[in-house]
Amino acid sequence: MRALHGANAEAVLRRLIPIVRGWAAYYRAVASSMTFSSLDHYMWRLTFKWARRRHRNKSRYWVVDRYFGRFHPSRRDRWVFGDRDSGAFLIKFAWAGIVRHQLVKGGASPDDPALAEYWRGRRRRKAPPPMDKTSLLLAVRQHGLCPLCKQH
Prior knowledge:
Elements (H helix, E strand, L loop, with lengths): L8 H19 L5 H22 L5 H8 E2 L10 E2 L34 H10 L7 H9 L11
Antiparallel strand pairs: 1-2
């Protein structure tokens, strides 16, 4: 955030959204609801501090009205940081669904051709990581396969 002091809200969002999405995807398999809540509060403090620094002569109420609101179309959360001009908003950690880790049976190996159906079923049940619209559309077009190695 220190490097983004002079940047506008759209640049801040462009920088922060991939970081938040990546952290949420990585840590959603552990008991992380309290951690996600504290990280959301920390991100709120960072963005509020950035907005107050950007508009030193404005009141905190003006800053809240300008940068915080109900940006997400299906969520009722009022404290979402966003840019009213572009419509972009910062996703929250708590919005990432927590997916419990599923244990692998016995000595199952992905390299064993006899267990190919078992691994296919595991991949099908697993919830997809949170992706933006472009990445999700690309994954659907490619049927979840890498175009180079043809594996999931």
